[in-house]
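My main concern about presentation is that the manuscript never shows what a single data entry looks like. In essence, backbone conformation is discretised, so a fold becomes a row of integers matching the chain in length. An entry of this sort, consisting of the sequence and the corresponding backbone structure tokens, reads as follows:
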Amino acid sequence: MLHEGGPGRDRAEATLDHRLSSPSAGILLWEDAGEPVSIAGWGGPTPNGIRVGPVYTPPEQRGRGYATALTAELSQSVLDGRLFDGGRRFCFLYTDLANPTSNAIYERIGYRRVAESAEIVFG
């Protein structure tokens, strides 16, 4: 949770504001019994696809399938045109190779690994 005045709060708020006001990006909120349990976003459209992410479930809600169901629903909505007229041919996302749980979930719902990347920062 980002606390008032905490590090990253301003950036998170700006990102959320952008996603909520952009016609090519957004955030879906999954609720259970009226309680928010997971979020998934989309953005970075290309002519044929769109990036899914971020995906987040608070630690106390994990292991219940919320993010799996939400990511699958979001991905299908992108493909079949419920989010964009005509839909997209594919969805893509970036994962952390150090997180085998999320990688296994993404593969189980239909994603496949196509490449690896690295970030290099020169000082």
Observations:
- Residues 66-80 form the longest helix (15 residues).
- The helical segments are 9-21, 66-80, 100-108.
- The radius of gyration is 15 Å.
